[in-house]
Amino acid sequence: MDWTRRFHDSSTTFTAALNLHFKDDEIRARQFWSPELGIGLDDFTKTFIKPEGTGHRKNHLPNGVCRVSMRRSTDAFVTTLAWIDFVKERLPKLEFVGAAGATGSAVDS
């Protein structure tokens, strides 16, 4: 979110969607995530609540999992792809040493 606001548009707005378990408190979760993300409570979309007895994880996060989306993101996406192409064309082939000591190219053509 900070990267988007810094390099694309400082007035960019975001939405958030929560994934919660059936016993989680949706209002409390929204109140937790709102200041963490710097978005208003009205910027949350429909919450997915996992039903009881699905056999999935038993130890879940009390505030759920939050997915953030950027509103009107197409322009930023196209701009980012253009930046990637520009960098790939301008940078010479860079060599790096991997964790195991193998060398490889940092930029593929």
Give the topology:
Blueprint: H1 2-7, E1 14-21, H2 26-37, E2 48-50, E3 65-70, H3 74-90, E4 95-97, E5 103-105
Parallel strand pairs: 1-2
Antiparallel strand pairs: 1-3, 4-5
Can you put this structure into words, describing what you see?
The protein is α+β, with helices and mostly antiparallel strands and 109 residues long. The protein has helices at residues 2-7, 26-37, 74-90, and strands spanning 14-21, 48-50, 65-70, 95-97, 103-105. Helix 2 (26-37) links the parallel strand 1 (14-21) and strand 2 (48-50).
Q: How large a portion of the residues is in β-strands, by DSSP E?
A: 15-25%
Helix coverage percent of residues? Answer: 25-40%
Task: Classify the secondary structure makeup into a structural class.
Answer: alpha+beta
Number of strands: 5
Mean pLDDT: 79
**SSE arrangement, N to C:** HEHEEHEE
Outline, from the CA principal axes? elongated
Q: Main sheet: which strands, in order across?
A: 2-1-3
Low-confidence blocks of residues: none
Radius of gyration: 20 Å
Sheet of most strands: 3 strands, mixed
Gap between N and C termini, in Å?
29 Å
The number of distinct helices, counting runs of at least 4 residues, comes to: 3
List the defining traits of the structure above.
elongated; two-stranded antiparallel sheet; 109 residues; 21% strand; 3 helices; alpha+beta
Task: Give a brief outline of the structure.
With 109 residues, the protein is an alpha+beta fold. The protein contains three helices and five strands.
